[in-house]
Design goal:
Blueprint: H1 2-24, E1 28-32, E2 37-39, H2 63-69, E3 76-81, E4 85-92, H3 104-107, E5 110-115, E6 121-127, E7 133-140, E8 147-152, E9 159-167, E10 172-174, E11 186-190, H4 192-195, H5 206-214, E12 218-222, H6 231-237, E13 244-248, H7 255-272, E14 278-281, H8 293-315, E15 321-324, H9 345-359, E16 378-379, H10 381-387, E17 393-397, H11 401-406, E18 413-414, H12 417-424, H13 433-440, E19 450-454, H14 460-471, E20 477-480, H15 484-489, H16 518-525, E21 532-534, H17 538-542, E22 558-559, H18 575-584, E23 594-596, H19 602-613
Parallel strand pairs: 11-12, 11-13, 13-14, 14-15, 16-20, 17-18, 17-19, 19-20, 21-22, 21-23
Antiparallel strand pairs: 1-9, 2-3, 3-8, 3-10, 4-7, 4-9, 5-6, 5-8
């Protein structure tokens, strides 16, 4: 009896403690995610709350398209809370939580991100589904303070309800409107890959990664097995006020369908949206195509059909039409997919690395034109002097350290050319994001920093860093029109004080669009829509002066010597003069540019000049470490300029387009 009483007393004590603990817990206040800053849904007149197509599309689009549109891929909500724990509850429309090649966290889970102190999105937690109805603590023990969060909904399942909860007394509000110029969405239309197969969680599909990197909303219209450029979908796409249309349907289409459907789709969109950029995307390479000829041939034939349609549309005068190649989207090591076709998280990250720089110049963010408001890349002395001391301005001094120590523009930070050379001359340097992030962090450059660079020469060193920072993903970088000796001679402020700069982690996003490969240069030789600029001297161009192993110039390249763009004071020609020179060479404002030179220095000012007078800035290729002439790259001794449009940029006559290193001299 004593034992029973003791046992009963123990149970009573435990129950009492549990009751007190329950009483101490704060109740959770819940909000429907649609009452927060809800994004990713292109239409409001939907049949169910989290559909991706309007109700009127049922019976109009093909049944598999409609069925897939009930999945919540790409839908997300931004909110602000000061809670130290965040809860979620969601009800799925299907009890199929996962797929054989895709985990439940990606198919049916939630994914939570937050902005850090620098404004970058960072992953926080994933909501792991266990049944059709789920209630989870997404995160607890969060650092105190109010911050913005982003929650993604499931990729391959539908939801009937989704709520976010915080302890009572905590703030839970919709995030504020996006900045002006960042409110229109990128609209992705495509296949199961665009849909999200096979990301491990909703935030890891490339469309979401691109949205976070560019900080713009995204509408995901990927439909598994059904991204086939259907006319019914084309009409729906045309209803959306997109920042950019991304058409990525080749994985679901044979070459004949690509040939017959691409042009009607583009023309329909262009008629409805005359000024909206359209990006046509080749299919990713099957990662088993090295061994399976059928997969290799499928890639080749569908790409050829898309490229031919693109060229026809361009020839017809369709403007603001762009093209993204597929060969390197998931990498070239065969490790980027789960089944040869659908990307893993690694593959999606690699895709984002390709898509982000292709889309960045097309998403016309309102403040991306800084620092000089007009002509983003160049600012004069008077304007710069007025802006010295602005908190979001970073001036970089590209002169030798001894010269910097003797006097520099107030607030200017010295950039170490030797350190850059040491980094850039390592094998694979241009693709080593981690190394570049270590280099750039001490410069204190954040996502909204306006960067201006100067040197003591004719923009040679400054333009080197201008190109490098653009390549690393710095959005707002420009040159100062004039060199430091002239600044000092004019009596403008000079100091020897070294500014204190707090390191800022900068997420490098490499921009292959400003770096032409050898294959791209070779392709430009026979393309009527591409022209190459040779920035060397006239003697080097015509072969009478030889500094490289082979004399002459690349066939079809036109001559625009870099020294004719910048005077001895480091000042560029005025805009009308620049336009006249480029027009003489056949450059049109809407066309991209390819330039090259003998070494890394002479090339630099020419693409800068091209950016000053053309709406699309130039890109550059990497120079080979040895300067050896690739035997397959032709050269000819006589000048030729047939007025063709200029497309890409390289930087070394002996190694045009050779994969390797950016030569820093």
């Amino acid at each position: 009896m004593t034992h029973i009483r003791l046992h009963g007393l123990l149970v009573a004590v435990l129950l009492s403690g549990a009751a007190w603990a329950k009483a101490d817990e704060k109740p959770i206040d819940w909000r429907d995610v649609r009452s927060l800053a809800f994004e990713g849904q292109g239409w409001k007149d939907v049949k169910a709350p989290f559909d991706r197509l309007p109700g009127k599309a049922e019976g109009v689009v093909r049944p598999p398209v409609w069925s897939n549109s009930r999945n919540s891929a790409g839908l997300c909500a931004r909110f602000v809370t000061d809670a130290t724990e965040i809860h979620a509850r969601w009800t799925l429309t299907s009890d199929r939580l996962d797929m054989p090649h895709m985990p439940a966290t990606g198919v049916s889970g939630l994914d939570l991100y937050a902005r850090d102190d620098q404004g970058h999105w960072r992953w926080v937690a994933v909501g792991q589904p266990e049944a059709a109805k789920n209630t989870k603590v997404l995160a607890q023990g969060l650092k105190a303070g109010s911050r913005e969060y982003l929650v993604y909904l499931p990729l391959y399942n539908g939801v009937s309800t989704v709520e976010i909860g915080v302890p009572r007394g905590s703030k839970l509000d919709p995030a504020g409107p996006r900045e002006e110029g960042r409110r229109r969405p990128i609209v992705f239309y495509g296949t199961s890959i665009t849909h999200g197969g096979c990301a491990s969680r909703p935030g890891m599909v490339h469309t979401a990664i691109v949205g976070r990197r560019l900080d713009v909303p995204v509408i995901n219209l990927g439909f598994s097995g059904s991204g086939t450029m259907d006319p019914s979908m084309t009409d729906l796409l045309a209803e959306l006020d997109a920042a950019v249309y991304v058409i990525d349907c080749l994985p679901n289409m044979a070459a004949d369908d690509v040939a017959s459907r691409t042009e009607p789709l583009v023309k329909t969109l262009r008629k409805a949206r005359p000024d909206t950029p359209i990006l046509l995307v080749e299919d990713r390479s099957y990662t088993d195509s090295t061994f399976l000829d059928a997969h290799r041939q499928r890639n080749e034939t569908s790409r050829a059909a898309l490229k031919a349609a693109y060229e026809r549309l361009r020839a017809e005068g369709i403007a603001n039409l762009h093209y993204l190649e597929g060969e390197s989207q998931v990498g070239d090591d065969g490790e980027g997919t789960v089944d040869g076709s659908h990307p893993t998280d690694l593959g999606f990250m690699r895709m984002a690395d390709v898509f982000t720089p292709a889309l960045a110049p097309l998403v016309k963010v309102a403040d991306a034109a800084a620092p000089a408001e007009k002509g983003a890349w160049l600012i004069g002395f008077a304007d710069l002097e007025k802006r010295l001391g602005e908190p979001d301005l970073r001036v970089l001094d590209a002169r030798p350290r001894a010269a910097y120590d003797k006097g520099h523009i107030p607030g200017a930070v010295w950039v170490d050319a030797k350190a850059v050379a040491a980094t850039s001359t390592k094998p694979g340097a241009l693709s080593d994001r981690a190394a570049w992030e270590r280099w750039i962090a001490p410069l204190g450059i954040g996502p909204k920093t306006k960067v201006l660079i100067y040197d003591a020469n004719r923009q040679l060193d400054a333009a080197r860093f201008w190109w490098l920072l653009r390549y690393l993903g710095v959005e707002r970088v420009g040159l100062i029109d004039g060199n430091f000796p002239v600044w000092a001679k004019d009596g403008r402020p000079v100091t020897t004080a070294i500014p204190k700069v707090e390191p800022v982690p900068f997420p490098v996003v490499l921009r292959p669009d400003v770096l032409a490969t050898r294959d791209q240069v070779l392709a430009a030789l026979g393309s009527k829509s591409s022209t190459i600029i040779d920035a060397r001297s006239e003697g080097e161009y015509n072969g009478t002066v030889k500094f490289s192993q082979r004399s002459g110039h690349v066939p079809t390249a036109c001559s625009l010597e870099w020294e004719k763009f910048v005077d001895e004071n480091g000042r560029f020609l005025d805009e009308p003069s620049l336009r006249a020179k480029l027009a003489t060479a056949g450059v049109k404002p809407d066309d991209p540019v390819i330039t090259h030179c003998q070494g890394a220095a002479a090339r630099r000012s020419t693409p800068s000049s091209s950016s000053a007078s053309a709406s699309k800035p130039a890109t550059t290729t990497s120079a080979g470490p040895t300067g050896a002439t690739p035997p397959t790259l032709p050269s000819q001794p006589n000048p030729r300029n047939d007025g063709r449009r200029i497309r890409v940029v390289s930087n070394h006559h002996d190694a045009v387009g050779t994969p390797g290193l950016m030569k820093m001299s």
